[in-house]
Design brief:
The protein is 27% helix and 17% strand. By secondary structure, the chain is of the alpha+beta class. A hairpin with a 2-residue loop joins β1 and β2. The structure holds iron/sulfur cluster (SF4) (2 copies). The site of one iron/sulfur cluster has 14 residues, from α6.
Amino acid sequence: MPTVKITLDGVQLEVDNKKTIIEAARENNVHIPHFCWHEKLSASGNCRICLVEVEKMPKLAIACMTQVAEGMIVHTKNERVINAREAVMEFILINHPLDCPICDEAGECKLQDYAYKYSKGFSRFIDDKNHKEKRVEIGPRVMFDAERCISCSRCIRFCDEVAGVHQLQFVQRGDRVTIETFPGESLDNPYSMNVVDICPVGALTNKEFRFKSRVWEMSFTDSVCSGCARGCNIEIGVRNNEILRLNPRKNDDVNSVWMCDHGRLETWKHVNAETRIKSPMIRKEGQLVEVGWDEAIAKTASELKSFGKNEIALLGSAYATNEDNYVFAKFAREVLGTKNIDFARHHSGADDAVLIRADKTPNATGAEIVGVHPADGGLSFEKIIAGIKEGKIKAVYAMECDFASLPGVEEALSKLEFLAVHASNENATTKHADVVFAASTYAEKNGTITNFQQRVQRIRPAVTTLEQDRAMDNFEMSRWDKFAAHNDKWGKGPRRDARPSWKIVASIAGVMGTKFKYNTADDVFNEICQKVEGFKGLSFLKVGKKGALLKQSTVTA
Ligand code: SF4
Ligand code: SF4
């Protein structure tokens, strides 16, 4: 990489000669303010807040469009630069409504932050501000407030360069300038809501999240989207133990800084839904009735014991974690001795060249690799269904997938003598179950999932369950810390009596006489890392925030 030597605020640096000043400064932890520049979009150089002084240049230069050169001496904080920044801020704020108290962006707004940091703190303008359109439904999922727009063009460039559709355009000139779609068109591309994230002000807002919460009242937890096999890195925003929004989290190896609208809007509603299974249930006199965990576990253990190993089949899940699937496969092998174990691979749909994958499950790769596949003469998913119809398979233990919604499966399930399922929400499969275990969703548990690239990524609890609350109560911590953990992070919202699937399986194994010695998902993962080839050498710590690639594609026997 050819480099050049520059001096930035008195510090000598050697930087890539292709970089602009803003990029070189950023790589060396020097922040140059910017509105229109975005690391993943082309530079447009229109906001002028990134003005810096380059010695021997007659005028200040915009750092986002000026390439570094040998011997360049750059000042980002001297008096001339500070005066220019204050002038640009004054200019941008002339017509801005300054309605932070009622603006959804407040608390995470670049303009608000820069107004505190880089402006004089008062306005010399006494004239009326320009008024423009407010609450414009610019797309089915995005609302536009023209008065707040600072004409940075990030949203236009995002549509052109990332989503690949020219849906937004500047119209008018000077202080009348605004963004619009072509008449009759709307901002409706599958990635449209990313413009909300990159808009540096509150001009573009998420229609669904608007006015639900101030951001400083929420907690944010790093996780992974469960909407398809891409596994986009996300941040789950929660208030009062209820998920209010998802946002993309940067991971250049997976999703850059973007996510699709489907993943953002549709992959978490079930966590808050009324259809949540609130505790374990057993069918009594034809009806599913809520029971305690011990009763549901004992019933399942005794029912499974009453069938021959060839009469039983286990259905793992491409929606469950590596840990859930690993313990499930171990239960099939070591406790039941059945080889009839598989999962449904039928969840495909449309894909595209940006992020969206055809496989709509988050962990088909992981389920397969940790052992959920027919072993040595065992039955595949299709053969299990056929076996049920023929009366050869009489009992099924199934986990975290609405199998009954797949063609031809519901009819088969109704023929079973015993069906136990783990589910987070009522669905077509739970209607046929004899025992239903309340399973934690991806937002309520620790664990890992493996995306289509064989990248193992961490999920973490963003909302709490009753079990986690109880564990917290038993944990050695001060009363104040407990209060803070319960109330600041999760608030007083609803709790479900749900457990992670690996833990439910381990409890049944224990009652059937085989002790699985795991206390946490971490313990399960450590065992996976010892026993499953591709995982060797990994740990939760190594997976970290950005995930880790499996060493090789290995399917265990
Ligand atoms: S709506 Fe936001 S992103 Fe688009 S031009 Fe205006 S300020 Fe920039
Ligand atoms: S592309 Fe897939 S993983 Fe990414 S946000 Fe969309 S549904 Fe979620």
